[in-house]
Amino acid sequence: MKKLIFLLMTGTLLGASSTVQAEESLFQWATTVWREKEVKPVTNKTWKEECGSCHLAYQPGLLPAKSWEKLLNEKALNDHFGENASLGDAALKEIHDYAIANAADKSWYKRSRKIAVATETGDAPVRITELRYIKRKHQKIPEKMIKGNPDVKSLSYCNACHTKAEEGVYDNDTVSIPNYPDWKD
Amino acid sequence: MRGIKFAAAALCLAVCSGTAWAQEQTTELPRLTSEYVKDPAAFKLAANEPEVLVKKPGGAAPTVRQPEFEPPMFSGSNVHKYLGIATVAAAAATFLTHKDRCEGAACAGPQPPRSTHNTHANFGKATAVLAAATVATGLLSHWDDFNLEDGLADPDNQHVLLGATGAALMMYAINKSARSNVPTNHAGVAELGALGMIVAIKLTW
Question: What is the ipTM of this complex?
């Protein structure tokens, strides 16, 4: 009886986590021992090649699906933050589908779940740096270390400071701000 | 004697947490020039030398090639993680070393003499100290991850609430049992607390 109550409580508590959704099942997430604290690393070759040729191939789990819908269409890519980033139909479809399937609101990774919660309501953000959560995490860093830092210049260059950004790891312990190696949050 | 042991254990853990926290607060301390000499790549980065910059085609922004970076083995975040795991391990050991006996007023017949210094009791006390240290290091190293404006659906908020509640429940149960001269009902509350901590860890694992 005690064991049954135990199992029921475990199930209820895990189920209560309303932020975790689809793709990977609840059971898979609950039973895996691998860490899923960060953002799911990019596994799609086209994504890595096409997006990564100009900037860090940001993980799809950094924005919700509604944001990727806004960003990944022919019209939007013709003016992708001031640059022409248009793609062929096949590549665009593959990238679009990959982004939607792995968007923050479809991921079980903790940082993606936080982003999904923070963007659940309101307009779809198109810049990762516009996210309330991301802004808050960086608000204590003095401007001289980002905009005034010739090796960083902007928050958009995640991998300038997040040494494991390409693996989807953004935690404090892996941060090293160029020219300010001793800075800690 | 027991009080001294407790105080010593608590002090050690507090020093441990404090050291981890202090290590993270060295932000603007002046550095020795010799520190730079050990890492010439940092000089080149500071000077923005093209040798350490990788040019991207099509006029895109160059990305910085970072010098080798080793994440620290000992940080506030790591200490909190290890203490959390140790708490769950100690709670499991407490559970495994318990001996089934009748607890509460409904017990019929004579009960064996109560011991507060057996393996189960010692593991219980260790669990309480570890749980307190886990909460303390969590507050120190992750205080800025708790934001009520993100609501209760936020995994970090859930982690804090479940973890702190779980630790409090375990400490309450252990304290209740330790202070009683007769067997008390404490297992259910302690198990609920341990479960809360396990789920809290899983939510941010």
Answer: 0.78
Mean pLDDT across the stretch A140-160? Answer: 91
How far is Cα A86 from Cα A73, in angstroms, rounded to an integer? 9
Contact (Cβ atoms closer than 8 angstroms) between residue B96 and residue B122: no
Separation CA B82–CA B169 (nearest Å)? 20
Work out the mean pLDDT of chain B and round it to a whole number. Answer: 78
- The pair phi, psi for residue B33, each rounded to 5°, is -60, -35
B69 touching A, CB under 8 A? yes
Is B102 in contact with B168 (CB distance < 8 Å)? no
Contacts (Cβ under 8 Å, ≥6 apart) of B115: B121
pTM for the complete prediction? 0.72
CA-to-CA separations, B156 to A115, A185, B142, B190, B204, in angstroms, rounded: 12, 17, 9, 23, 7
Cβ-nearest to A117 among B39, B46, B153: B153
A180: chain B residues, CB-CB within 8 Å: none
Helices (H), chain A: 2-15, 26-31, 45-52, 65-71, 74-78, 89-101, 110-118, 132-138, 143-146, 158-161
A17's tokens: 């986590």
Provide the pLDDT for residue B10: 76
Token pair, residue A183, equals 């800075």
φ, ψ at A142 (rounded to 5°): -60, 145
B4, B144, B189: which is closest to A138 by C-alpha? B144
Look up residue A80 and give its DSSP letter.
B
Residue B105: pLDDT band (50, 70, 90) is low
Q: Which one of B29, B144, B156 has the shortest CB-CB distance to A114?
A: B156
Beta bridge partner(s), residue A80: A83
Partner-chain contact B56 A150, CB within 8 Å: no
Supply B11's token pair: 């002090």
